[in-house]
Protein backbone atom coordinates (compact mmCIF):
# COMPACT_ATOMS: atom_id res chain seq x y z
CA UNK A 1 0.00 0.00 0.00
CA UNK A 2 2.79 2.40 0.92
CA UNK A 3 4.57 1.49 -2.29
CA UNK A 4 1.50 2.40 -4.34
CA UNK A 5 1.14 5.72 -2.57
CA UNK A 6 4.82 6.43 -3.12
CA UNK A 7 4.49 5.53 -6.79
CA UNK A 8 1.49 7.87 -7.19
CA UNK A 9 3.45 10.66 -5.51
CA UNK A 10 6.35 10.12 -7.91
CA UNK A 11 4.02 10.20 -10.91
CA UNK A 12 2.28 13.40 -9.79
CA UNK A 13 5.58 15.07 -8.94
CA UNK A 14 7.06 14.04 -12.26
CA UNK A 15 4.01 15.29 -14.15
CA UNK A 16 4.09 18.63 -12.36
CA UNK A 17 7.82 19.00 -12.91
CA UNK A 18 7.38 18.14 -16.56
CA UNK A 19 4.60 20.65 -17.11
CA UNK A 20 6.48 23.43 -15.28
CA UNK A 21 9.60 22.85 -17.33
CA UNK A 22 7.75 22.60 -20.62
CA UNK A 23 7.97 25.81 -22.66
CA UNK A 24 4.96 27.38 -24.33
CA UNK A 25 4.81 30.14 -26.90
CA UNK A 26 2.45 32.95 -25.85
CA UNK A 27 1.40 35.53 -28.41
CA UNK A 28 -1.19 38.22 -28.87
CA UNK A 29 -1.60 41.91 -29.55
CA UNK A 30 -2.29 45.18 -27.71
CA UNK A 31 -5.07 47.43 -28.99
CA UNK A 32 -7.22 50.41 -28.06
CA UNK A 33 -10.12 48.79 -29.97
CA UNK A 34 -9.40 51.03 -32.94
CA UNK A 35 -5.67 50.78 -33.53
CA UNK A 36 -2.95 48.31 -32.62
CA UNK A 37 -0.56 49.77 -30.06
CA UNK A 38 3.18 49.41 -30.44
CA UNK A 39 5.80 49.79 -27.70
CA UNK A 40 3.43 48.56 -24.98
CA UNK A 41 5.01 46.48 -22.21
CA UNK A 42 3.35 43.19 -21.24
CA UNK A 43 4.25 41.77 -17.82
CA UNK A 44 3.92 38.06 -16.96
CA UNK A 45 4.17 37.31 -13.23
CA UNK A 46 4.06 33.71 -11.92
CA UNK A 47 3.13 32.47 -8.46
CA UNK A 48 6.70 32.99 -7.28
CA UNK A 49 6.51 36.65 -8.37
CA UNK A 50 9.06 36.04 -11.12
CA UNK A 51 8.28 38.62 -13.79
CA UNK A 52 9.04 38.36 -17.50
CA UNK A 53 8.30 41.17 -19.94
CA UNK A 54 7.90 41.66 -23.66
CA UNK A 55 7.17 44.73 -25.76
CA UNK A 56 4.67 44.90 -28.59
CA UNK A 57 6.07 45.68 -32.03
CA UNK A 58 5.00 48.50 -34.34
CA UNK A 59 1.87 46.54 -35.24
CA UNK A 60 0.95 45.88 -31.63
CA UNK A 61 1.96 42.19 -31.77
CA UNK A 62 4.02 40.41 -29.13
CA UNK A 63 5.36 36.91 -28.58
CA UNK A 64 7.20 35.35 -25.66
CA UNK A 65 8.30 31.83 -24.63
CA UNK A 66 7.62 30.91 -21.01
CA UNK A 67 7.46 27.75 -18.88
CA UNK A 68 3.97 26.34 -18.45
CA UNK A 69 2.51 28.03 -15.40
CA UNK A 70 -0.24 30.32 -14.14
CA UNK A 71 0.51 33.96 -14.93
CA UNK A 72 -0.87 37.30 -13.90
CA UNK A 73 -0.77 39.66 -16.87
CA UNK A 74 -0.40 43.45 -16.80
CA UNK A 75 -0.02 45.72 -19.82
CA UNK A 76 1.32 49.27 -19.65
CA UNK A 77 1.90 52.07 -22.14
CA UNK A 78 2.48 55.76 -21.50
CA UNK A 79 -0.66 57.76 -22.11
CA UNK A 80 -2.91 54.70 -21.88
CA UNK A 81 -4.81 52.78 -19.22
CA UNK A 82 -5.28 49.01 -19.28
CA UNK A 83 -8.84 47.71 -19.61
CA UNK A 84 -7.98 44.15 -18.62
CA UNK A 85 -7.71 45.06 -14.93
CA UNK A 86 -5.09 44.08 -12.38
CA UNK A 87 -6.54 40.62 -11.73
CA UNK A 88 -6.23 39.12 -15.20
CA UNK A 89 -4.80 35.59 -15.02
CA UNK A 90 -4.07 32.84 -17.54
CA UNK A 91 -3.33 29.22 -16.66
CA UNK A 92 -1.05 27.33 -19.07
CA UNK A 93 -0.29 24.34 -16.83
CA UNK A 94 -2.90 22.16 -18.53
CA UNK A 95 -4.32 24.60 -21.11
CA UNK A 96 -2.88 25.47 -24.50
CA UNK A 97 -2.11 29.15 -25.06
CA UNK A 98 -4.69 31.14 -26.98
CA UNK A 99 -3.97 34.46 -28.62
CA UNK A 100 -4.18 37.22 -26.01
CA UNK A 101 -6.05 40.41 -26.88
CA UNK A 102 -5.05 43.10 -24.41
CA UNK A 103 -7.32 46.13 -24.59
CA UNK A 104 -6.28 49.61 -23.52
CA UNK A 105 -7.76 53.09 -23.70
CA UNK A 106 -5.94 56.37 -24.21
CA UNK A 107 -5.87 58.78 -21.28
CA UNK A 108 -6.77 61.85 -23.31
CA UNK A 109 -9.81 63.85 -22.29
CA UNK A 110 -11.41 66.81 -24.02
CA UNK A 111 -13.01 69.39 -21.74
CA UNK A 112 -15.15 72.32 -22.83
CA UNK A 113 -16.56 74.92 -20.48
CA UNK A 114 -17.60 78.53 -20.13
CA UNK A 115 -17.31 81.36 -17.66
CA UNK A 116 -20.55 83.16 -16.77
CA UNK A 117 -21.92 85.66 -14.29
CA UNK A 118 -24.89 85.09 -11.97
CA UNK A 119 -27.29 86.12 -14.75
CA UNK A 120 -25.92 83.45 -17.10
CA UNK A 121 -24.13 86.02 -19.24
CA UNK A 122 -20.74 84.92 -20.58
CA UNK A 123 -17.53 86.55 -19.37
CA UNK A 124 -14.79 86.98 -21.94
CA UNK A 125 -11.04 87.23 -21.32
CA UNK A 126 -11.25 85.56 -17.92
CA UNK A 127 -8.05 83.88 -16.73
CA UNK A 128 -8.57 80.11 -16.50
CA UNK A 129 -5.98 78.06 -14.63
CA UNK A 130 -6.15 74.28 -15.00
CA UNK A 131 -4.23 71.62 -13.10
CA UNK A 132 -4.17 68.11 -14.55
CA UNK A 133 -2.07 65.88 -12.33
CA UNK A 134 1.17 67.83 -11.99
CA UNK A 135 0.67 69.81 -15.21
CA UNK A 136 -0.51 73.42 -15.17
CA UNK A 137 -2.34 75.05 -18.08
CA UNK A 138 -3.12 78.78 -18.41
CA UNK A 139 -5.96 79.82 -20.71
CA UNK A 140 -8.31 82.73 -21.34
CA UNK A 141 -12.00 82.48 -22.10
CA UNK A 142 -12.81 83.59 -25.65
CA UNK A 143 -15.27 86.26 -26.79
CA UNK A 144 -18.12 83.86 -25.98
CA UNK A 145 -16.76 83.10 -22.52
CA UNK A 146 -15.71 79.59 -23.62
CA UNK A 147 -12.52 77.63 -22.98
CA UNK A 148 -11.32 74.15 -23.93
CA UNK A 149 -8.29 71.94 -23.41
CA UNK A 150 -6.96 68.42 -23.71
CA UNK A 151 -5.62 66.53 -20.73
CA UNK A 152 -5.42 63.11 -19.20
CA UNK A 153 -7.78 61.17 -16.98
CA UNK A 154 -7.38 61.76 -13.27
CA UNK A 155 -7.96 64.72 -10.96
CA UNK A 156 -8.66 67.95 -12.85
CA UNK A 157 -8.92 71.32 -11.09
CA UNK A 158 -10.16 74.47 -12.83
CA UNK A 159 -10.00 77.98 -11.37
CA UNK A 160 -11.22 81.16 -13.11
CA UNK A 161 -10.71 84.78 -12.20
CA UNK A 162 -11.00 88.25 -13.68
CA UNK A 163 -10.55 91.78 -12.47
CA UNK A 164 -13.75 93.00 -10.90
CA UNK A 165 -14.92 89.49 -9.98
CA UNK A 166 -14.36 87.05 -7.16
CA UNK A 167 -12.48 83.94 -8.32
CA UNK A 168 -14.22 80.57 -8.43
CA UNK A 169 -13.41 77.04 -9.53
CA UNK A 170 -14.20 73.35 -9.47
CA UNK A 171 -12.42 69.98 -9.19
CA UNK A 172 -13.42 66.61 -10.60
CA UNK A 173 -12.05 63.09 -10.80
CA UNK A 174 -12.29 61.91 -14.41
CA UNK A 175 -11.95 58.18 -14.96
CA UNK A 176 -13.79 57.03 -18.07
CA UNK A 177 -15.22 60.10 -19.77
CA UNK A 178 -13.60 61.24 -23.01
CA UNK A 179 -15.59 64.41 -23.63
CA UNK A 180 -16.95 66.77 -20.98
CA UNK A 181 -18.75 69.81 -22.33
CA UNK A 182 -21.08 70.95 -19.57
CA UNK A 183 -18.74 72.80 -17.21
CA UNK A 184 -19.90 76.27 -16.17
CA UNK A 185 -17.99 78.38 -13.69
CA UNK A 186 -19.89 81.33 -12.25
CA UNK A 187 -18.00 84.44 -11.20
CA UNK A 188 -19.65 86.87 -8.86
CA UNK A 189 -18.97 90.50 -9.65
CA UNK A 190 -17.39 92.70 -7.02
CA UNK A 191 -19.71 95.60 -6.26
CA UNK A 192 -19.18 98.80 -4.31
CA UNK A 193 -21.20 101.75 -3.07
CA UNK A 194 -20.62 105.47 -3.28
CA UNK A 195 -22.17 107.82 -0.76
CA UNK A 196 -21.88 111.49 0.07
CA UNK A 197 -23.58 114.87 -0.19
CA UNK A 198 -24.29 117.15 -3.15
CA UNK A 199 -23.33 120.74 -2.26
CA UNK A 200 -23.55 124.08 -4.03
CA UNK A 201 -22.65 127.40 -2.44
CA UNK A 202 -22.53 125.68 0.96
CA UNK A 203 -26.10 124.49 0.49
CA UNK A 204 -27.21 120.88 0.16
CA UNK A 205 -28.99 120.24 -3.14
CA UNK A 206 -32.11 118.22 -2.36
CA UNK A 207 -34.27 116.28 -4.83
CA UNK A 208 -31.62 116.67 -7.54
CA UNK A 209 -30.94 113.98 -10.13
CA UNK A 210 -27.37 112.75 -10.11
CA UNK A 211 -25.91 110.45 -12.79
CA UNK A 212 -22.93 108.11 -12.48
CA UNK A 213 -21.29 107.82 -15.92
CA UNK A 214 -18.93 105.23 -17.41
CA UNK A 215 -15.86 107.24 -18.36
CA UNK A 216 -14.87 104.81 -21.12
CA UNK A 217 -18.04 105.09 -23.22
CA UNK A 218 -20.00 107.94 -21.54
CA UNK A 219 -22.97 105.65 -20.85
CA UNK A 220 -25.05 106.05 -17.72
CA UNK A 221 -24.22 103.49 -15.04
CA UNK A 222 -26.91 104.59 -12.59
CA UNK A 223 -29.15 107.54 -11.80
CA UNK A 224 -30.50 108.57 -8.38
CA UNK A 225 -32.13 111.57 -6.75
CA UNK A 226 -30.67 113.19 -3.67
CA UNK A 227 -32.65 113.12 -0.45
CA UNK A 228 -34.30 116.10 1.22
CA UNK A 229 -30.99 116.53 3.05
CA UNK A 230 -28.97 116.55 -0.17
CA UNK A 231 -27.48 113.10 0.42
CA UNK A 232 -26.96 110.38 -2.18
CA UNK A 233 -25.93 106.72 -2.22
CA UNK A 234 -25.17 104.51 -5.19
CA UNK A 235 -25.29 100.78 -4.40
CA UNK A 236 -24.11 97.62 -6.20
CA UNK A 237 -21.78 99.50 -8.54
CA UNK A 238 -19.37 97.37 -10.56
CA UNK A 239 -15.64 98.03 -10.91
CA UNK A 240 -14.84 100.79 -13.40
CA UNK A 241 -11.44 102.20 -14.22
CA UNK A 242 -13.02 105.46 -15.34
CA UNK A 243 -16.19 107.07 -14.01
CA UNK A 244 -17.54 110.53 -13.32
CA UNK A 245 -20.65 112.31 -11.99
CA UNK A 246 -23.01 114.40 -14.07
CA UNK A 247 -25.89 116.68 -13.00
CA UNK A 248 -28.00 117.28 -16.13
CA UNK A 249 -30.02 120.27 -14.92
CA UNK A 250 -26.88 122.10 -13.78
CA UNK A 251 -24.63 121.11 -16.70
CA UNK A 252 -22.15 119.85 -14.16
CA UNK A 253 -19.51 117.18 -14.81
CA UNK A 254 -17.01 115.96 -12.19
CA UNK A 255 -13.43 114.85 -12.58
CA UNK A 256 -12.71 111.25 -13.66
CA UNK A 257 -12.19 108.77 -10.81
CA UNK A 258 -11.80 105.00 -10.37
CA UNK A 259 -14.32 102.68 -8.75
CA UNK A 260 -12.48 99.79 -7.12
CA UNK A 261 -13.51 100.21 -3.50
CA UNK A 262 -16.31 101.65 -1.41
CA UNK A 263 -16.27 105.46 -1.59
CA UNK A 264 -17.74 106.97 1.57
CA UNK A 265 -18.32 110.67 2.20
CA UNK A 266 -17.62 111.26 -1.46
CA UNK A 267 -19.01 114.79 -1.33
CA UNK A 268 -19.62 116.64 -4.57
CA UNK A 269 -19.10 120.41 -4.61
CA UNK A 270 -20.56 121.94 -7.77
CA UNK A 271 -19.14 125.44 -7.19
Structural notes for this entry:
By secondary structure, this protein is mostly beta strands. The chain has 3 domains: 2-104, Immunoglobulins (Immunoglobulin-like, Sandwich), CATH 2.60.40.10; 108-189, Sandwich (Immunoglobulin-like); 191-269, Immunoglobulin-like (Sandwich), CATH 2.60.40.10. The chain has one helix at residues 2-21; strands at residues 23-31, 41-45, 51-55, 61-67, 70-76, 80-82, 89-91, 100-106, 108-116, 127-132, 135-140, 146-152, 154-161, 165-166, 168-174, 179-186, 188-189, 191-200, 203-204, 209-214, 220-225, 231-238, 240-247, 252-253, 257-259, 268-269. The strands form 7 sheets. Strands 20, 21, 23, 24 and 25 form a 5-stranded antiparallel β-sheet that branches. A hairpin with a 5-residue loop joins β2 (41-45) and β3. The longest helix has 20 residues, at 2-21. The radius of gyration is 36 Å and the shape is rod-shaped. 17% of the residues are buried. The model is unreliable at 3-7 and 9-15 (pLDDT under 50).
Tags for this entry?
7% helix; five-stranded antiparallel beta sheet; 3 domains; four-stranded mixed beta sheet; Immunoglobulin-like; 271 residues; mainly beta; disordered N terminus
Amino acid sequence: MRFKLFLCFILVFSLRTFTQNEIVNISGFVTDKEFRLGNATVFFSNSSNVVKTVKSDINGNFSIKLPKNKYRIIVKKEGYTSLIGDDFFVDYIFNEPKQLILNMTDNKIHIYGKIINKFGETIKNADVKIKVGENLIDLKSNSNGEFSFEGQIGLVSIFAQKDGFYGNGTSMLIQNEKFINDISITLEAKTFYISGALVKNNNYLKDTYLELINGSNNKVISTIKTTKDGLFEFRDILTYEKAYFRIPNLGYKSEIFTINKDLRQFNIFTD
